[in-house]
Amino acid sequence: MNDPQPLAAILDIETMNLDMAAEGLSFSDPTGWVISCACVHLQGLQNPREANLVYVRDYGQVVAHMGEVDNMTIRPLAALYRDLSRWHKQRVPLITHNGTSFDLPILSKPMHEGGAGCAEEISRYAGDNLHIDTCARLFEQTGLRIHLSTLCEMLLGTDPEDHKLMPAAEAPIAWSQSRYGEVIRYCIQDCILTGRVRDVALGQKSITIKGHLPGQKRIQKVIIENVNFDLE
Question: Which of 77, 85, 96, 192 is the least buried, fewest Cβ under 10 Å from its Cβ?
Answer without folding.
Answer: 85
